[in-house]
Amino acid sequence: MIEESLSDNKVWELCIVGSGPVGMATALECEKLGQDVLLLEAGDASFDPSAASDSHAEIVDPDRHAPMEIAVCRALGGTSWTWGGRCVAYDDVDLMPREFVPNAPWPISHGEIRPWYQPATDYLFCGGDRFEIPLGRKLSGGLTLDWVERWARESRVILLHRERLLASKRIHISLKSVVTQINLGPRNSVGERPLQSLTVKTPNGDATVRARRVILAMGGVETTRLLLHTQQQWPELGGGIDGPLGRYYMGHISGKIASILFNDSKTVTDLDFKLDSTGAYIRRRFMLTAETQIQHRVLNTAFWPDNPAFYDPSHKSGVLSSVFLALAFPPTGRRLLSEAIRLAHTGPRPYRLGAHLRNAILGAPRGAVDIYRILRDRFIRKPKKPGFLVPNAGRKYALHYHAEQVPDPESRISLSSERDSFGLQRAQIDLRFTEQDVQSVLDSHALLDQALQSSGIGRLEYFYEGQDLRKKVWAQAADGFHQVGSTRMGTDPAQSVVDPDLKVHGVDNLYVASSSVFPTSGQANSTLLAVAFGLRLVHHLHNSTHELSTADHASQPA
């Protein structure tokens, strides 16, 4: 239900700040457990892109990080409004100690979080937690096709959860409510500060929110920004000034530097999107086994065949040029794809519109049938197909890679001198990549090429040679959507921001549910794991509350 105003006197059992995929899932899980929760959302009930102006950040290197205005959404549902719907589990190797990956200790094992994938996939509508589906054929060279990614049946999951959120008697939603200050009290007997209240700006003026426990689920950058703002008053927070808070900021390197040429034209059908028995789409990816990664000291990377770049008319495909023309016209393109994905497909200006028009005209007879099929699968059928591969007689496709980057303490979020309309200092983002990140992309491609050939599947053809290949990987080293690492978890308060149960070190009732707690980025995008951690946290808090109430009851005199 919507809270029209916030009472300064009420004490909530739990307050969740942020209603994106993690915040809404944790709130709904609280309802399932019979708990009341206050859900604070900075935006309104519906998506308004202009609201993201208060998330604007100073980007040190704009070639490395997307503008925050398109990386986040301030609205009920958060970034689920622009999320692509891709759900990928982390791999065991991501949480294992790897001697060649510095600054990457996880305080828990993958086995401790794996049980939470199932409820997370329920909230994300991606058809279950089965991410290993054996191909039935053993490949050589350390190559595997046994792992799949899943896709939400509706990527804008808020549309499927909104009615339940708004109708719930236990979930109390306060919109246009921006937390501007976390107020801490004096240290208690064990040296921790209690969170006494939140200062919240609302349309009705400033409000004071009191809660026994608070979960920050505002996304990686915004959560980090609020904690950095709090650290200015309590310098010991987050490991101290210039400690781990804000450092080790990561995402992924993602792009294309090669084509994959299949020996058999039918092979690509195994790698296209397929509906599984749950009614959700899945897709297989080429990956190197954990043993191969460790043996060759490469970071985790996933690969899949894709269409050639839409924006390059040299593909001579009437279908791809027609799609490009639709995406290049902003009013049409923004209806088809989120702005971030649209810009990735339209590429750099100036657009070669004449060449694309020629492709579209020459390919019209065959292209019309293919375009109808694409439009049907993308916009008419439910669930919509997440993407499409246009078959070609040459058996050649672009090869997309999605690669891990190493944690780097100099890659960081700090505070800018500029302030937003609420008086908060804006974030300054310095996302950095390293030579190890780039070399791993190159080495992983070389290992993949060898394995493809030894397995009789095909081979790679690189777009560039020598140093030009390395330069292209560097040019593709950019992210901003997968906000990992800046409030990392760990057991040592000097080296981490939250403990293994996601409680902020030194504060006895403040928690973070965000991809920012991950010590490594893995090959997977972060939404599924972040939701899984949020659900694990809710149950931890519920169980600990029950244990305390049971202990209190037992201590009462008969």
Strand and helix map with partners:
Elements: E1 11-17, H1 21-32, E2 37-40, E3 58-59, H2 68-71, E4 86-87, H3 110-113, H4 117-124, E5 143-144, E6 148-151, H5 158-167, E7 171-174, E8 178-184, E9 195-202, E10 205-216, H6 220-231, E11 252-262, E12 274-275, E13 281-284, E14 286-288, H7 290-296, E15 301-306, H8 318-328, H9 330-336, H10 339-346, H11 353-362, H12 364-380, E16 396-404, E17 412-419, E18 425-430, H13 435-454, E19 458-462, H14 466-475, E20 510-512, H15 527-555
Parallel strand pairs: 1-2, 1-10, 2-7, 3-18, 10-20
Antiparallel strand pairs: 4-6, 5-14, 6-13, 8-9, 9-10, 11-16, 11-19, 12-13, 14-15, 15-16, 17-18
Helix pairs in contact: 1-5, 1-15, 4-15, 8-11, 8-12, 13-14
Keywords: FAD, Flavoprotein, Oxidoreductase
Protein name: GMC oxidoreductase
Cofactor: FAD
What does this protein look like?
The chain has 558 residues and is an alpha+beta fold. The protein contains 15 helices and 20 strands. Strands 1, 2, 7, 8, 9, 10 and 20 form a seven-stranded mixed beta sheet that branches. Strands 5-14-15-16-11-19 form a six-stranded antiparallel beta sheet. It has a four-stranded antiparallel beta sheet with strand order 4-6-13-12, with no helix packed on it. It is globular and about 70 Å long. The two termini are 40 Å apart.
List keywords for this structure.
558 residues; alpha+beta; FAD/NAD(P)-binding domain; 7-stranded mixed sheet; 6-stranded antiparallel sheet; 15 helices; 30% helix; globular; P2Ox-like; GMC oxidoreductase; FAD
Summarize the structure in short.
The protein is α+β, with helices and mostly antiparallel strands and about 550 residues long. The protein has helices spanning about 20-30, 70, 110-115, 115-125, 160-165, 220-230, 290-295, 320-330, 330-335, 340-345, 355-360, 365-380, 435-455, 465-475, 525-555; strands spanning about 10-15, 35-40, 60, 85, 145, 150, 170-175, 180-185, 195-200, 205-215, 250-260, 275, 280-285, 285-290, 300-305, 395-405, 410-420, 425-430, 460, 510.
